[in-house]
Structures
1.
Amino acid sequence: MASSATLDRTASPIAPIDVSRAELYEGEEWQAPFRTLRAQAPIQYVPDSAFGPYWSVSTYKPIVYVEALPKIFSSSWEYGGISVAGSVDAPKENEVRQPMFIAMDPPHHTAQRRTIAPSFGPSEVAAMKAEVQKRTAEVLDSLPIGEAFNWVDKVSIELTTGMLATLFDFPWEQRHKLTWWSDMGGNVELMKTPEDMATRNAALMEMGMAFAALWQEKAQNPGKDLISVMLRSDAMNHMSQEEFIGNVILLIVGGNDTTRNSMSAFVWGLSQFPDQRAKLEADPSMIPNAVQELIRWQTPLAHMRRTVMEDTEVDGVAMKKGDKVCLWYISANRDESVFKDADRIILDRENARRHLSFGYGIHRCVGARVAELQLTCLLEEMAKRRLRANVIAEPERVATCFVHGYKQVMVELSHY
């Protein structure tokens, strides 16, 4: 994507727009600034933000280009990792850099991903379906009809933490700790100040102690769970404590937030597009494609970050070694050059599966099939019961530019 007319950092046609500001996501006000960036400055240098300077990449094709070049655009934890929050140079006070395979470059990334990936293969995910259907049915059958409740707590969190507890063979009665640790691990706002970072570190240390005990237990009595899979692997059985905790955070945040927030987007999004909800209710065969479209429309992780390893050029824009690059999946999934009428949910959208919500290239989400399975089962079990979740209030959203999600979506259930 090189150009003969290379531009420097200051050459943007418009003033810098800092789309890392938490209020844009808390108030669901991110669409307009990204629309401006896509039209006028799809690759823009932002010299000043709460997380330091960064490049903002907001259109589909340049994101795919960057993701396809991991040797030039590093994910490594050593340079600050995968979110805008990590510093490029020396760690900030109380900033703990956690190795995890999503925040590694080849060959270490390749070996560790190869260990985990078979647990999420097609046959393994197919074997999970009966259990996911059973748990989804139990949760839905426990819900009140015609009474207000928070869908995020009663459905999205309950289903995703149950899946995580199953994957890790984590103590069932303590499964809601997984939600708390996921919230702390994925909240980049807690990486702005030393005090907040210390709070986050304490929560993650608690998580590390709980999983270290589980590691010891599985060393004595291994099973089919993810901890046992790591223990049997040459690539992962000698991990340092930091690396083990990092990979647990990755699997918890990845396994929780993506699915949880897509489940919440299902009820909120379709309440905004009742014509699409009616089509789905009339034709459940649309569910597989509807799942892809809902994941595209929501984009549960707003961005991933890379660090430039050598001076390079993207679409005629010069980037310097050490620069921080934010790939805004949330904007690419609304890129009108790829997705026509992109702000709308269109459940039979022909190219919905082209979304970047799971990333692209070597770091594409290893658990994507599990997320799709959980959301598919939810839609299927809702359809079997002819249940509709009627949203009765504006959602309360997560105030962060990394995890794009919901704290509360109040609903009342009815039959259709």
Note: Residues 1-5 have pLDDT under 50 and may be disordered.
2.
Amino acid sequence: MRIVNLTNDTKQDILKSLLKRSPSQYTEYEKTVADILSDVRERGDDAVFELTNRFDKWDINSSNVRVTKAEIEQAYEQVDPEFIEILKEAAENIRVFHEKQLRDSWFYSKKDGSILGQKIVPIDSVGCYAPGGKAYYPSSVLMNIVPAKVAGVERIALATPAVNGIVQPVTLVAADIAGVDEIYKIGGAQAVGAFAYGTESIKKVDKITGPGNIFVALAKKAVFGQVGIDSIAGPSEILVLADETANPRYVAADLLSQAEHDELASAILITTSLDFANKVSKEVDSFTAVLERKEIIQKSLDNYGYILVADNIDDAIEAANEIASEHVEIMTADSARVMTKIRNAGAIFIGPYSSEPLGDYFAGPNHILPTNGTAKFFSPLNVDDFTKKTSIISYSEEGLKAVHDKIEYFAKKECLTAHANSIAVRFENK
């Protein structure tokens, strides 16, 4: 891996490079996505089926678009029983973690009898997306559906591409374990369109979540406002903060765990030791030579892999906060203290035995995380994403009487006399 000194210039160059991977930069695909969504909105099932036939090469229709109970039962027979048990345990870990995020509605009363509060209810319906075909991730199926289930969403649908009309068995098993209600054999922008607008076979949802390719990401961006979305996911990324006390072999292995995702993935180490940087670089080369996805890894590292050598840990932390990585690992002598200074990260992994894949698969916190610097203002997928909050206002006559003149004055200052009148009319004969 390339080793460079951390300066303000190198930091800014890296940030510019990383931001080029954002889905917002792929404007050449936006017209294609817009055309697909328009077609689905206007022609419903016919458009979805024609597009699926064109892209996925199988004869889909209204009788086979939805996965049947029999297909789910058959999927269980095709998946290794040991893996099924692991999926169940992972789902339970995810459920327990997300149950901690549940919030209650709240209310308080004033001396005049007025009541104010916030009512929290689950979203009625959610459409989750899961990649299919060559790339399929049962872990993401669990991470989408389990929090929605915990939140109390009444209808949870899953869309995932099929190969020759068959969905990956492990995807079906994971979805069933998580508690899905409906599964559809569609993918790409047309799946997002079906969820956003509804078709004859697929009922509209209120929110769409889950990762996908560039077409899925741009489609989610385009339908936002018609429905809610979780975020617009970009390529995977990891940033490791480490000093000379860390194990260079562990650090190298963790960097490559994200570099293998695709050629746009980013793997960055920031360290305060040049000697440690050289050790990690050698371990990276050693691992890359024998790993199955070495071609993808090498291109990822060539494009977006860096080892940055900082003058001190405070400079390293500042750079980490500016980069705002999806995953941040901390392997320093004082990891807990460093953690308290990290403000911008999707997820933070502390210590040598908290490797990033632990969070991907098993620990319980959600692995659907903000990317491309959006950790500065976005959070991981969580129970709040599947609920909505409504303000409750119940004023007594006494309560409104005490403040009505102030409200009227405020409204008139904004030249909204009808606003003022709606308050004043209640006291015109009093």
Note: The chain has a mean pLDDT of 94.
3.
Amino acid sequence: MPAPLMEEAMRWFGPADTVSLEEIRQTGATAVFTSLHEVPYGEVWPVDLIRSRRAQIEAAGLRWTAVESVPVHESIKTRTDGYAEAISAYQETLRRLGAAGVPTVIYNFMPVLDWVRTDLHHRLPDGAEALLYDPVKFAAFDLFALARPGAERDFSTNVREAAARYWQGLTPAEQAAFTRQTLDLFPGVKLNVSLDGLRAMLSRYAAIDAATLREHLRLFLAAVAPVAQSAGVKLAIHPDDPPFPVLGLPRIVSTEDDLRRILAMEESPANGLCYCTGSLGARGDNDLPGIAHRLGPRIHAAHLRNVQRQPDGVFFEATHLGGSTPMAAVVEALLREQQARRIAGRPDATFAFRPDHGHRILDDFRRPDPTCPGYPLIGRLRGLSELRGLQQGIAHLLSD
């Protein structure tokens, strides 16, 4: 018998998303990863809103298989005023999601920032547009727009000199536009953060190093993992994106060693991973198939995308089967994990994946801009189709 397939899902940003649930269903996906984006960070999710959102998804013929995400309030990461109330709200939200039958909650513990890119419309040779990260451009933002004290210590002489040339080559209007774009990307959605606002957010981490942030994560998991397990919810931490320090902030979810430490903090089966090949793949020293094989029993959800790394530190979103990550080996490791779970009789024998990010191609250029950069419809459909064919082919080569 072929190995069981992972469930196919797509990211949906809620009723305001420019990609509708009806369109997602037409991609062949059977589930969505979504969140209640309208609920402010740190507040309890209303029961009626959870129920109505689930009913809306199911009316479109889909399943709400993972929450992406229940954001962790900054007070929890810094253990400052209000953190106890924020943890209590998180616990209650987990109970309500469990009661509603939503089985997985994805979250991250990145301080201040969410994912970071410097180019939203990088044009590839075939005319497609991709997201790109350029360390020189990011250094220009850090050194000259933000003017972060001590930033020069984080960059080599060559990078600082290249950043200065890049910044000085922009007009004032271009500098302002690049600054605004970078600020808007930090939380993944536009929250109108200002430079002064970002400086204030960074100041809260002045005395927080990686060891301290890791301890704050341990305390958070000690409080929420038992609640999640009781509620029938699995927690899936998302890796840092990019998986290295930025703006002087610590990163603690970037390597296999980091992931192992987190899993050891709480042995509860509720404490697990969102396995993101794009985030982990931005580091050449991360063995993506090996991580999937060795930590597979604790993977609760997967984001499959590919990045192309370059020697100068630049990386950009590649096609899902291209780039620097051996996607076939990754998918084989994930399918073997599901196969082992089925043989062991685990109730969570199947987990879901979604194609993460995608190129802007074809009719994507004639559609409204994606609700979030990197999430056009047709480009993600291409990625889902490629991954579907890959996993079905590999599944038929594997047998119980």
Note: The chain is about 40% helix and 15% strand.
4.
Amino acid sequence: MKLLTILLQDILPEVADSVASGSDTSSALKSLTLEELMARLISGVTKLAINIAIALLVFYVGKYIIRKLYTLVSRILLRRNIDSSLTSFVLSFVRIVLYFILIVTVIGILGIETSSFLALFASAGVAIGMALSGTLQNFAGGVLILLLKPYRVGDYIDAQGYAGTVKEIQIFHTLIVTPDNKAIIIPNGQLSTGSVNNWSKESLRRVDWSIGISYGDDVDYARAAILDIINANPGVMSAAEKDAYDKANPQAAPEVHEPTPEEDQEDSRRRSIADFFRSRRSRIIRHQAARQKELPALTPSPYAAPSVVVTELADSAVILKARAWVNTSDYWTVYYSVLETIYTQFKNSDHIHFPFPQMDVHLTK
């Protein structure tokens, strides 16, 4: 209908004005001779055909340019090792924006007023935005997750009452797979504003076991037996390995000594500008290395080695808490293995007994 109105405006402006005003169009047609009508029809159709040809040419050339830009952006993101989830989001966003610009350009070439089209699109966007406020919140949450990266694909997370491995990070939701292979879809809006426990964020984790022994059992004997079982497990880190990890991952960087202004002035007199900056950088590196040598060695953490302590005197048992450090990937393997070994060795022991819930009843005569 819009193209017909534009065609009438170009060929027969009198008829177009009559249609717009709602008056009779027969009088406007009677005022034209057959030769004038045919000439205007031929001129208008020719102009419209040229505009359509130009619009088609611009559309296909624009598609070719969009494909080239898409490929260029994709290569740049891959070359810089950008996260795959963020890469897919950026590429989709770039493609949508470029195609929208192309379509608006083609519509303008056809003669349709783009300002009214953009105004209609904006008003429709506001209405859709109000109707899909929750969806837009999830979209914004997806953008934050892709930019801030609180978790990545492959991480094991616990959020919104669900725990599982992150399978996909989409624009509106995150897909996690539970250990029993259930697919859970969680909206990104909740994940971006709520708490997320990322079990895979750190490379080390501490394993805790709670073991109950009977009142009257030898605590030192139980402690030594549990430590022997834990230290014999190949997945448990020793104190030396844990301290080495702490030294390789210091919490604070060493202090860097900056050259004094007098040293800068002396160097600037004797060297050119390029030599001056090179020497300044080398002095910073030398001072940093010297400062690193002066730093005291890290004190071994008392919690680095496996330990067993009494944590509770319960109603029916003395509760021992055992702790050890393991690689995050070995957490459950070590946990189940040590727990099973403790039960296997202690059930036949004469020194350690697993208590049952019990109650002492005293009868008064």
Note: Residues 139-198 form a domain with the SH3 type barrels. fold (CATH 2.30.30.60).
